[in-house]
């Protein structure tokens, strides 16, 4: 592209990064975001979400946290989706404490956890067979004005079943 006199724009970078991520080249995708920044191409929130998701799916939470920190330093407006991606990543690797800490950081920035955020906690707590804390999480969810959805209840019912608490399933 550049050989023909065309400079890549943020759409070009986003498309390339997404393709790299989908083909398993997460580190190259991250490097490409740095290249874009060096060349003065401002990536947008969708691109940030792609990178954070890729790093979290890879289980590289340290790099995901570093990427989020850089995005905020670059002046990209923080979004609930960014932090929820990190929360979900920590839940997937079993680090519920760091997931809670990330949620607290999010709220300190004035962002509200949403269904996806809370459902990540509920799912992990159910997988851990910690049904009391899963129920508390749902209570907190309601208190914060986030109504549980079908996924929330399906996850909870599954957790009860996996914990042999069949009388609680209905």
What is the end-to-end distance? 59 Å
**What general form does the structure show?**
elongated
Average pLDDT metric: 88
Helix fraction, binned, reads: 55-70%
β-strand percent reads: under 5%
- Give me the Rg, rounded: 19 Å
Strand count:
0
Number of DSSP helices? 9
SS-based class: mainly alpha
Query: Sheet bearing the most strands, described?
Result: none
- Write the H/E string, N to C: HHHHHHHHH
Stretches where pLDDT is under 50 for at least 5 consecutive residues are: none
Written account of the structure:
This protein is mainly α. The mean pLDDT is 88. The longest helix is centred in the first third of the chain and has 14 residues, at 45-58. Helices cover 69% and strands 0% of the residues. It starts with 9 loop residues before the first helix and ends in an 8-residue tail after the last helix. α1 packs antiparallel against α2 (26-38), α3 (45-58) runs parallel beside α5 (80-92) and α7 (115-127) runs parallel beside α9 (150-162). The protein contains nine helices and no strands.
Topology:
Elements: H1 10-22, H2 26-38, H3 45-58, H4 61-73, H5 80-92, H6 96-108, H7 115-127, H8 131-143, H9 150-162
Quick overview:
The chain has helices at residues 10-22, 26-38, 45-58, 61-73, 80-92, 96-108, 115-127, 131-143, 150-162. It is mostly helical and 170 residues long.
Characteristics:
9 helices; mainly alpha; elongated; 170 residues
